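anyone else get weird line breaks when pasting these?? whatever heres mine. first is seq + tokens for prot A
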Amino acid sequence: MLHRGNLRRVVGASAVVLLLAAFMAFYVADRAGAGATRCQQHRLDARERTALVTGEGPRTLVIGDSWSVGLGQADLGLSWARRLPGEVHVAGFSGSGFSAHASGCGRVSFHDRAPTALGTRPQLVVVEGGLNDYDQSAAAIDRGFRGLMADLAAQHVVVVGPADAPARTRAVPRVEGLLEALCREYGVPYVSTSDLDLAYLEDDLHLTDAGHREFGDAVAERIAAVTATRPAVLVR
């Protein structure tokens, strides 16, 4: 038999265990819900940005990440892609990248989304990204890039690499080196942006309104420069 004092201690300990278990269950559920909500919001933002076609002239398609979507801006239509010349269509998804698992929101890599995005029938495809591939293996980035190039066969393509966002600065040289090498292999012009000194939000990852303007203007100028000396090639 348990002494009354021992019984109280056992009951008390059991209550603590149950309370902790309940707390952990709530925490896990809350985290899962937060993840689901975040992905849902990314999908809503992606659809909203896709509907915002800007400019006139030759049609350009931007396949990219949260920077192309304009995450963190009050008006998604003012993301950097707006600064490109011509009629600009954006197929962006926050958190996505070249590799299949850069995002935790399912099949949203550039390779996964490119076939649908090409329905805009672009004259030029600008692929922008790499920051979300910061923790992905070289093999994963390689597979994703090659799959994307297969999707973009017979398209004129330019690849815009990652800027040196403070939150991911240590990973940028590695990712950029991989993308540059792959672009050389495929004969695709590569636009480096890692030298740009841009204005970031407090998360040190996403751009301010001014940052989007600076990035967009620099990318537009550099695409014009690289395609003037080395025209965007038809990917084979």
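and prot B, same format (seq, then tokens)
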Amino acid sequence: MNIFIAGGTTGIGYSLAKHYLSKGYWVGICGRNPAKVSENNFEKLQIFQTDVCDLSSISLALQQFLADKNSLNIFINCAGSYAEDVAGNISYEEAEEMLQTNILGTVNCFEAARKIMKNQKNGRIAVIASVSGILEYENSSLYTKTKRSVIQIADAYHRALQPFGISVTTIAPGYIDTQKLRALNQNDLSKKPFLINEETATIVISEAIENKRKLVIFPTKMKWMMKSLSLLPSSLLNIIMFRKAKWMKND
């Protein structure tokens, strides 16, 4: 099998890459800074420098990866951007980065994979969203709004690509214990409920793709907590989520 992972040089993307490499598959990963992969000791791993915000960049990397291969079996988009948005404390540059990467980047990854898989009449595409994206309320953070957009974009592609034998799986995880999450929280994850490790998340995600699940929200406790919150009136949800965000940042 041939697997390509956008945003695969770190975190859950790189963990998924190692998972597929352990099965003997060919894996291509890409990111803005390939140097984040300090060593490549895998014979079947190819690393590319790309920007998901540039469709031609991601398309070229895919073409190079598939140059000596017959097909693209799985494409996973793990690329994402996050900036804190408590009480509107966010710069224009941070906001632009999230909008570009999380929304435009998602569309570009779908388009790059779609063009190849549509000709094959098969394939699997997966995208990493966030459990926060299942909540809809007026004052949700910009990050939450972008991840909700990711879920809706994936749903649209799921409908459009199904007739061509292409499955689309949306992954909406809670907190995963990655180096990035630790860096964002000064290595203190005590306020991250239902935290899971990368290995567990990798198994859940790979199984969801294998089984062609449409939407997977995990861990289970986080899933039901968020679904319960989604039943609340928007005004009350606004208050609860704002206070939660302030508490998590010790404000």
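btw re prot B: Helices lie at 11-21, 55-65, 92-120, 142-161, 179-184, 198-210, 220-229, 234-248. Residues 182 and 210 are 29 Å apart (CA to CA).
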